[in-house]
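User: Can you recover a sequence for this backbone? Please restate the input before giving your answer.

Assistant: Of course. Working from this structure:
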């Protein structure tokens, strides 16, 4: 209950979150097969028991949409059960804002999963090349764009 101790605990927690987010960002450049983001990719990595560190924004973890919240709570529980570290980043902090820019969920893997990208490309995908989920408008615009291109 000591405010000074609470402040130190909070600073330590934030420092760990910033550290793991920075590690993730470096991993994207160094070994992209060990850094995944977006719910579909991260979930597939979890199915392979490959997640070492999971980062989720508090916005997603505490979403007012029940289906979304259940999906992320389930993912977090599964990663913890499989021995992974979980970090819930505050969307009020700069680290949470950075994570939100890459979909709000990201994972550092224990080992590379190079086939994971190929698998998701083979499936009928609802995400673009950068791994971001497409909006309903974007999904409906694609067939229209294809039709216009075929007419031209």
């Amino acid at each position: 209950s000591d405010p000074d101790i609470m402040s130190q605990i909070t600073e330590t927690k934030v420092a760990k979150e910033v550290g793991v987010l920075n590690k993730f960002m470096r991993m994207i450049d160094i070994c992209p097969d060990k850094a995944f983001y977006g719910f579909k990719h991260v979930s597939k990595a979890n199915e392979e028991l490959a997640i070492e560190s999971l980062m989720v924004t508090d916005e997603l973890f505490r979403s007012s949409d029940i289906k979304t919240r259940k999906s992320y709570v389930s993912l977090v529980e599964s990663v913890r059960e499989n021995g992974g570290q979980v970090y819930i980043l505050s969307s009020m902090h700069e680290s949470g804002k950075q994570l939100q820019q890459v979909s709000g969920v990201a994972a550092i893997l224990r080992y590379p999963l190079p086939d994971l990208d190929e698998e998701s490309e083979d499936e009928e995908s609802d995400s673009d090349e950068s791994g971001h989920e497409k909006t309903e408008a974007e999904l409906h615009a694609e067939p229209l764009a294809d039709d216009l291109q075929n007419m031209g």
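That completes the design. The radius of gyration is 18 Å.
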